[in-house]
Amino acid sequence: MRWVPSKMYGWRGRIGMLFPSAGLVEREVEKMLPEGVSLHVTRIPMRRPTGEELAHLSDRVEEAAGLLADARVDVIAFNCTLGSLIKGAGYDREIIGRIEAATGIPATTTATAVVAGLRTLGIAKLVLVTPYVEEMNAIELAFLEAQGFRVLSHKGLGLQDPFEQMGVEPARWYRTVRERADAQADGYFLSCAGIRAVDIIGALETDLGKPVITSNQALAWHCLRMIGVREPIAAYGALLKAQLLER
Length: 247
Hints:
This protein has 247 residues and is of the alpha/beta class. It has two domains: 5-109 and 220-231, 3-Layer(aba) Sandwich (Rossmann fold), CATH 3.40.50.12500; 114-215, Rossmann fold (3-Layer(aba) Sandwich). The protein is 40% helix and 17% strand. The chain has helices spanning 26-30, 51-55, 61-70, 91-103, 110-120, 134-146, 162-167, 170-179, 201-208, 215-226, 238-242, and strands spanning 13-20, 37-44, 75-78, 107-109, 125-130, 150-156, 187-190, 212-214. The relative contact order is 0.16. The mean pLDDT is 94.
């Protein structure tokens, strides 16, 4: 029988994802992946995105990453925006180092992917929108500014429950970002891996005339780039449409 690669699961590459245990939106990442790229998810403990729980999200990262290594994935992604920056600049790189040391597999985090995406699109001045409480927004602002970005304004919805974050309709995220429109901004960052927002990226970019990055979009893009899949993906914003290389 003739071998037909498109019939094989993950024949172009397998992405392993570490995701908070109370997270509900893995599909946000999966639906952006092109044919032949598969997503494999392992949970890491986090019931609520409080500062204390986020600070301990990586406690068992070696064990969880080892489970993904059993699936022979090509890259391992630690997918929690705040969880990968909660301890400040350089914490994302620490997590990556631990995963790679434990598995021998290339790794990334959401914070790492977002920074790479912002730089790739030339977004130096940005507007930040999140589901977070103000305490968590302040932590993210400090991280972004330490990376050299200027946050012109920010808006958080004050949500500290993963189910509430997931429950926000994409249309509300569209309206919230549109309300923060700023002619001085190079682009917009809609933060959090636990929200449903990738479907409104294209509409926002069209109506704002500026690039828009979300956590899950940046993570998908970064993982695809790391495994060498460069296929343009039209429906989810400039970053994935062009499969641009990091500057």
